[in-house]
Design brief:
This protein is mostly helical. The protein has two helices and two strands, in the order ββαα. A two-stranded antiparallel ribbon has the order 1-2.
């Protein structure tokens, strides 16, 4: 038996019914295999990242960024302190 179905754009297609129909895929049945495959892919990616030194390079770059940020902040506060001292010297009344 065939049943006529229509898509959103109005095109017709035939769908089989009964024992010849297409079965809907079961997620419950395929989920363990999918989890296993994804676990193996994640483990392989992690192994590759460890062996190539990705984490070491990332740690060094993050350390450099933090050091640069700290140096900028220290320089900024030194300029603020110098500016304050200059203004204080201008405002101080000499007797």
């Amino acid at each position: 038996l065939k049943r006529l179905l229509f898509t959103r754009d109005g095109k017709a297609f035939a769908a089989m019914e009964g024992t010849l129909s297409l079965k809907t895929p079961s997620l419950i049945r395929r989920l363990p295999a999918l989890c296993g495959v994804m676990f193996c892919l994640g483990a392989a990616l992690e192994y590759t990242m460890c062996k190539t030194g990705f984490y070491n390079v990332t740690a060094v770059k993050e350390g450099q960024k933090a050091a640069a940020r700290q140096a900028e902040e220290e320089e900024f506060w030194m300029r603020v302190k110098a500016r304050r001292e200059t203004r204080q010297a201008q405002v101080t009344i000499r007797s």
